[in-house]
Structures are given as C-alpha cells and as structure tokens.
C-alpha cells in the first residue's frame, strides 16, 4: 500500500488524500475520550462502527 498524504487529524478521524483527484480516505480511530479529553481509552473496533 502506498503512503498517502495526511490532510487532517482530529479527535475521531484522520483524512488522507484519496486515489483520485478530489477524493479523500477517512480513517476512524478507536479512541474514546470523556470530560474534555481528561479521560482517554482505546476501544478495539470502535472505528469500524463509525
């Protein structure tokens, strides 16, 4: 798999440049935060459900 350029990274997802011009690939993270990110946990499979 080719490395793609990261466009944006936020709390819940990462956006990468897509294979075609004008497209994006969304990667949803398995991270869960609460209380303004004071509590952080990784939940396996959470990203797939988004």
Shape: elongated
Rounded Rg = 13 Å
Roughly what is the average pLDDT, rounded to an integer?
88
Strand line-up across the major sheet? 1-2-3
Q: Provide the β-strand percentage band.
A: 35-45%
**Terminal-residue CA separation:** 23 Å
- State the helicity in percent bands: under 10%
User: How would a textbook summarize the main sheet?
Assistant: 3 strands, antiparallel
CATH class: Alpha Beta
* CATH-assigned fold name: Phosphorylase Kinase, domain 1
- CATH superfamily membership: Phosphorylase Kinase, domain 1
CATH architecture tag: 2-Layer Sandwich
**Quick one: how many beta strands?**
5
Give an overview of the whole structure.
By secondary structure, the protein is mainly beta. It has a single domain, classed as Phosphorylase Kinase, domain 1. It has 1 helix and 5 strands, in the order βββββα. The mean pLDDT is 88.
What is this entry, summarized?
With 50 residues, the chain is mainly beta.
Which helices and strands, and how do they pair?
Elements lengths: L5 E4 L3 E5 L6 E5 L2 E4 L4 E4 L3 H4 L1
Antiparallel strand pairs: 1-2, 2-3, 4-5
Attribute tags:
two-stranded antiparallel sheet, 44% strand, 50 residues
């Amino acid at each position: 798999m080719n490395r793609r350029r990261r466009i944006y990274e936020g709390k819940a997802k990462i956006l990468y440049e897509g294979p075609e011009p004008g497209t994006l690939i969304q990667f949803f993270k398995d991270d869960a935060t609460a209380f303004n990110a004071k509590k952080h946990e990784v939940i396996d499979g959470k990203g797939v459900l988004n």
